[in-house]
## 1
Amino acid sequence: MKVLYPGSFDPLTFGHLDLISRASELFGSVIVSVLENPNKKSTFSIERRIEQIQEATDDIANIEVVSYKGLTIDCAKQYNVEIILRGLRAMSDFEYELQIAHTNRTLNNSIETIFLATESHHSFLSSSVVKEVAMFGGNVEHMVPRMIAKDLHSIFKV
Ligand code: ADP
């Protein structure tokens, strides 16, 4: 069975990576779909985000990294996937994630959303926290793969 893991991944963190690697054990294949959202200014280009994820998941065989625009359920349909995976860090994620899952059911009720709880030691991690730390010159090497830490340091020139 295939699963679609959609997100902005701007950039990928060890929290995302943990979810991807656990999903790759649970499912036959994982399609990581990187959202190109014209309404949200991203730090990294879509091409760079895809390269970052590809490099970080080099040792995982059953993974594909793609980009998409528009609705996640349309992307799921395009890749013939019936399960969407999302991660839960805390109660604050739950409300938002539940709303999206319900909305997606109203758009296409043959697609299910499943959730994996984050490892507790990754529960503080988000792409925006990583950027905030990097922006002020803090060390992010325990939060993101090395290539991404380098990218962040060169973007924020620290
Ligand atoms: P979006 O902008 O769609 O929320 P993100 O790239 O921020 O995309 O996150 C994609 C998915 O990964 C979401 O389901 C989010 O809850 C989950 N996620 C983000 N950070 C972590 C983490 N530290 N541990 C586990 N899951 C996470």
Note: The chain has a mean pLDDT of 95.
## 2
Amino acid sequence: MKLYRTTGGNYVEDGGRYYQVPESSWDVLVAHENLQAYLASVVQTGKPAVDFPSARIEAPIGSQEVWAAGVTYYRSRSARMAEAKDAGAGDFYDRVYTAKRPELFFKATPSRVVRPGGSVRIRCDAKWSVPEPELTVLINQRGQILGYTIGNDMSSRDIEGENPLYLPQAKVYDGSCALGPCVLLSSEPLPATTPIRLEIERDGANAFNNSTTLAELKRPIPELVEYLFRETSFPSGAFLMTGTGIVPPDEFTLAVGDRVRITIDPIGALENTVAQGR
Ligand code: DO4
Ligand code: MG
């Protein structure tokens, strides 16, 4: 089952059919005692909706904070070691890759999260910007994994590379995060063979594409969630992005108008255009 938040309310999809959920509040759904069982009952007792296609799909978020894990893939470790070398900080990334404690950082408030089809932003003071395609987990207020969505952790590599203490500026700004198109409901881990694909299109032509799989993710997702919830409470639940395993080559930077598509097959595809300025 997949859960969608739309301009016309919340919908659950099952077997290609969409059912409207009586609750219009995303936060109320996330807080449900047993969300999966509840939505299964909505499917069983409800009538398929006819109006879903006319509703605009919104980011599947209410008042949840968005957090992110970093350097959870070898590719991310290596790219960041290289970009921070001149700052004498390359070693930090190797150390966090092998450390027991993961890197977790605050990524976005809901107002900075972009919907599927909306515009993610690059900073006007950044010269080197990339998307980061990340499997993203929705967790309820009790620390239970409810399901998975697709996330884009937009990043300014030159700002982060200049000094790791600039990480919040490289990562947290308006339009720096996209989520969607839905939440695939499952408390079980996705198979290690699950592919994550990134495609970037410029002027109608392919500018970059690559893929990885969850087998490359170094840390178990429940362990990342446990660290996040260890000393911090999330009364409305939280999203946790699990890190990127795809980094475009160093000469690549995003440009205004680029189209970024991230595909994680069991969930779907998250597509956004790139913008700058207000
Ligand atoms: O250490 C900085 C951020 C890392 C990150 O966002 C990632 O690995 O995905
Ligand atoms: Mg990232």
Note: Residues 68, 70, 132, 134, 153, 243-244 surround magnesium ion (ligand 2) (CB under 6 Å).
